[in-house]
Amino acid sequence: MTKTLAAARRQERVKFKVPRSVQDAIPIRRIWPDGIFQVGNQYSKSWSFTDINYAIADKDDKMAMFLDYCALLNALDSGASAKITIHNRRIDKEDFERSVLLPLHGDALDHYREEFNEMLRAQVTGTSNSMVRERYLTVSIVKRSIDEARTYFARVGTDLVTHLAKLSSVAAELSTPDRLRLLRDFFKAGQPPAFDFDLRQHAKRGHSFKDWLCPDSMEFAADHFQIDARFGRVLYLQDYASYIKDSFLSELCDLDRSMMLSIDILPVPTDEAARQMQNTLLGVETNIANWQRKQNAANNWSATIPYDMELQRKETKEMLDDLTTRDQRMMFGLVTLVHMADSQQQLDSDTETLQSVGRKHLCQLSTLRWQQKDGLDTVLPYGLRRIQALRTLTTESTAVLIPFRAQEILQPGGIYYGQNAVSKNMIVADRTKLLNGNSFRLGVSGSGKSMSAKEELVQIALATEDDILILDPESEFGHLTRALGGEVIQISATSDTHINALDMDRSYGDERNPIVAKSEFVLSLYEQLVGGGQVTAKEKSILGRCTELVYQPYIRNGYRGTPPTLRDFYRLLKLQPEPEAQGLALASELFITGTLNTFAKYTNVDTQARIIDYDIRELGEQLMPLGMLVTLDAIYNRVIQNQKRGKRTWIVADEFYILFRYEYSANFFYKLWKRIRKYNGLITGLTQNVDELLRSDTARLMLANSEFLILLNQSATDREELAKLLHISDTQLGYITDVPAGCGLIRCGGQLVPFTNAFPQNTDLYRLMSTRPGEMLN
Asked: Which residue, 383, 399, 415, sits at the end of a domain?
C-alpha cells in the first residue's frame, strides 16, 4: 500500500453512527452558499461540464481529445481525490412542456399548435430519448478550515475549467442550490419541488437543508435498497479487462433508466509511484533470481523463467517506463454505478443487462453485498469514497473510461430542430442567444431545406409575437403564410399587386432624416435604371432636389395621407429645366409610365402584416433588379420600425444565391448580415446552389461568420468546399453524404451535431410545409 492510499484511508475513516432518520443517512455535515460541502472529514466542491463530439470524431481528432483528457487527469492534485459522475436523468414532463411545447392562445391557429405539440410529445415518449445525460466533476480535500478549502478550490477550479475548455467542454461550478437539486433529482425523481431552495430562509426557520432533498424512506438490504417506492442497486467494476474500448462507459449509460456512474480517482505523486514500482520490480527480480537458484541447485541449467514471472517483470517495467519517460501518473481508480427501477423484477433484469455489457468488454460488474449504503455514498457526488476496491491504473488506462460521447443542443426557450442522430435527444436551440444568430440552410434539391425553414417559421409564428418577412423566388411559402394569417404579396409586371417604391413614413431610415435616407434609395434606384456608374454628379443633384420637392406636401401634412409615387417623381423630373432631367425621365419611362410600372403605383396590399411573403417568382429578368431593390428597401425599413417598437424580425431568403447575381442585393444583404443583430433581427438564407454561392467572396465571408448552420445532403464538390470552409472532419461529412431528406449536421455556436428530423405526414402542417411533387398544395 502506498503512502497516498494509506493517508487517504486514514483521513476518510469516520466513526460509524447508526442513522436514526432518513436525514441522518445523508452524509453531508455542513454546507456553504458557494457550493462547498463538508462530508466526513473532507470538503468537496462540484463542477458541471458539457459533452463533446467524441463518438463522431475521426481517428486523429479522437486521439487529440484523448490526449487532452489525459492532460486533465494529470492536472489533478495528488493531495485530493476526484470523482467524475455521469447522471442519467429522465426528462421532467412539466419542465419539458413549459420550455418546448407551443402555448395555446385560444385562436384559430390552435389546431396547428396542437399538431406540433403532438409531434414534440412523440419525440420524448420513446424509449431512447427521454433521458438527459449530465456530467459532473467533484473534488474532495482534507483541510483545516473552510477558508483554506475555499482558497484551494478557487485555484483548482480555474485549472479544471481551462483544461476542459481545451476539450471544447464548457465547465461551470455548481452553487449550493445546484448541488442540492442534483441530489434531490436522484432521491425524489419525478417530484418537482414545491419551492426553490433558499439557504437563508431555511436557516431563519431552523430547518435542515436535508429536509428539502431527502426521500420519505430509505431501506437497505443485502444486495439492493429501496427509496420510497423505487428500487435501486449499486454495482462496482470488480475485474478489468487488459484492453478496454473507449465506448465502454457510453454503452453502460445507454440503459434507459435513471442511474449514476462514478469514477473515483486518487492520484499518486510521481516520485512516490516511481519508488513503489522500483520496489515492486526489485521484488519480482528477487523472486526470479531465487527461482533460478533453485533450478541451478537441481542441475536444471537450461530451465526458462515461468511465463507468469516473465509477464509480471514485463508489466512492471512497462509501468515504470510509463511513469518516468511517458508523462504518465499512477492513479487508484474505482468505478461504481447505481441504477433505479420501479420494481424488484425490473431491477434484476436491468442488473443482468448491465453485467452483460460488462462481460461483452471482458469486465465484471459485481453487486456490493451488505455495502449498498456505502456504495450509494460513494457513487453520489458527495465527494466520498466508502468502498475499498481500488485498482492501480496509469493516466491512459484511466482516460479510457472517457465520459464523453456526443454534444447536445438543449437551450431553454429555444426552437425544436430535430433529434440528435447519436443520442436521440431533442435538439432545441435559441438563435437569439448566439453572437451572430444569422443562419444558412444548405443542401441539394429535395434534401429538406424549405421544410426545415418552414418548421422553424411555424414555431416562431405560433409561439411568439415576432414578425416574419419572406423573400420567396419560387412561390413555396404562400400556402403556409396564408394559413398562419399572413399576407402574400405577388410582385410581377402583370400582377394586380403593387408596392409603391416611394412609400415612406416618419420612422423611415436608421435614426436619420427620412428624406436623406430616401434620397439614397432614389439614387440607387436610378443607378439600376440607367446603369451602374452612369449617373453623373449633375444627375445626382437633380435627383436629390426632386426627392425633397416630391415629399414636401406629404411631410408638411405630418406624414399623413398617401405618399407620392414614381409617377409624381417622373412629372417633377419633366418640369426641371436641365436637359439631364429629361434624360433621367426618359431612362425611367419604361418602369414608370410604361409596361413595367408595377412599382410606380400606390401600394394596394397590407405591408404591415405580421407575416409577409414577398413572392417575386414572376418578376422577370428586366424587372428583377428594380423589384429586388424595392422589396429589400421595404424589408429593411420594416426591420428598423420593429426595432424602434422593441419587436424582433425574422427574415427568410429562399434561393439565396439569386441575390448575389445583382450587386445591389449582394451588398445590401452583406451589410444587413453584419448589422441586423443591432436591429433585433435574424436572417436565414436557403440555397441548393452551394457551389454558385461560394464563388462570391462576400457569401463565403457571411457563411464562415454564421454561428447557426443547417447542412443537409450535399453534392460531392459542395462537401469538399464546406469541409475546408467550416473545418468538418471526414467522419462528420458522412452525415451529409447520401442521407435521407431532413438529415444532416447542425452547427450552433461551437457545437456541430448530426441530426435527423422527420415530421408526421398525416398532419395539416405537413401538407402546408411540404414541397415534394405530388404533396404540394395547388
From this structure: 399
